Amino acid sequence: MIKPILIAGLGGFIGTALRFAVARYFQVYHTSVFPWGTFVVNILGSFLIGLLYGLSEKGEILSAEWRIFLAIGLCGGFTTFSSLSMDAFLLIQNREWLRLAAYGGLSFFLGLLAVYSGYTLAKIM
Fold first, then answer.
1. pLDDT tens readout for residues 32-67
2. Structural domain boundaries, residue 50
3. Which pTM was predicted?
4. Contact call for residues 51 and 69 (beta carbons, < 8 A)
5. Which are the contacts of 22, defined by CB distance < 8 A and separation ≥ 6?
6. 32-36 long-range contacts, CB within 8 A, separation 24+
7. How many domains is the chain built from?
8. pLDDT (tens digit, 9 = 90+) per residue, 17-29?
9. Given CA atoms 15, 16, 17, 22 in this order, what sign does their dihedral have?
């Protein structure tokens, strides 16, 4: 039981560090009310998890340990629902209704489309 926890934890550490780096990049180089950092990591993470699940359905391409490391750990640490919720709350506080609608709608729609795209890509590889 301890081995899968450590594997997921290591993946989560790496995913969290990557999320911080991407979010920091957008904070430093893009001045916008729109929360680009969280948006980008959630869409990229959605694509990656779709790709991973598509690959795992193709057979024994990924071991159970790699699936835990990549899907639960890396993608789980990289993507963030809590940051999405906080960003949406800040848009509400600033009365940025159009940006809030775009952020929420696009996050869900493009996230779902990214999962489907990653999954489909894995199936044709």
1. 889 999 999 999 999 999 999 999 888 888 899 999
2. 2-124
3. 0.90
4. no
5. 37, 40, 41
6. 33/91, 33/94, 33/96, 33/99, 34/99, 34/102, 34/103, 35/83, 35/84, 35/87, 35/90, 35/91, 35/103
7. 1
8. 999 999 999 989 9
9. positive
